[in-house]
Amino acid sequence: MTVSTTRARHRAARRPVTPLSSIAQAASDQMSTVGRRTAVVAASSGLIVSMIGAAAPATAAPVDNESGKLNAVDLSALTAQARQALEAAPAVTVAADAAFTIEQAAAPVTVTPAPEPEPEPEPVRTTQTSRTQERQSQSEAPAQQEAAVEVPASAYGSTIVSIAARYVGVPYVYGGTTPDGFDCSGFTSYVYAQVGISLPRTSSAQGSVGTKVSRDQAQPGDLIWTPGHIAIYAGDNMMIDAPRPGKTVQFRQIWQSNPTFIRVA
User: Fold this and answer.
1) How many whole angstroms separate alpha carbon 198 and alpha carbon 119?
2) Strands 177-178 and 229-235: what pairing?
3) Greater confidence, 222 or 83?
């Protein structure tokens, strides 16, 4: 009796089939045809061996079959997953006339307060004067101004008043704090700084420092404060200050009806 043994057959290993496989196969067939035609033409010139070698189709790279499985990519499965991801993605729509607001946090900004204007009431005339008297008073004005420059005798010995008297004639300049030009609080703070005393910048702030004293206890060198203005007391109902625009630092009579006297040590 003859015994035959039939062995199982396995499908030969192949590369994965992809949409590019047909394109690659067509290109390979075309190159093979071109090679054969070239070999026939070259045979008559004795170059058949070299042309055949040059036109031989490329040999496919060996397939790594050690694992017994071939790497394959299922494109249809990937396409289905991509479609599912797009369908599951939320759709965002925005109206054409939608308005957007941007919240802005307010940054703290500290602004140096501007010096207040220094008002000074104009003297009220209680009697009518003739034109002759007005001309006479205008001619006497320069002499009165020269006399006003003199330091009152009651201020002798006051360091503050002596320093302040150096700047008689300096013009009033709004916001001025130097001998090039002073406003009222710029003048007092500059004079006090010469003796090592620091005063706030504005007249309203200077009115809140030091110790308030009565008028009969006031001494030359004390501050004289009224709302919107600050000056230095010179004794004998006199003061020295930077009055207002158009004027200069000068000694003059205290014109305020009820000023506040402040002593700063």
Assistant:
1) 24
2) unpaired
3) 222
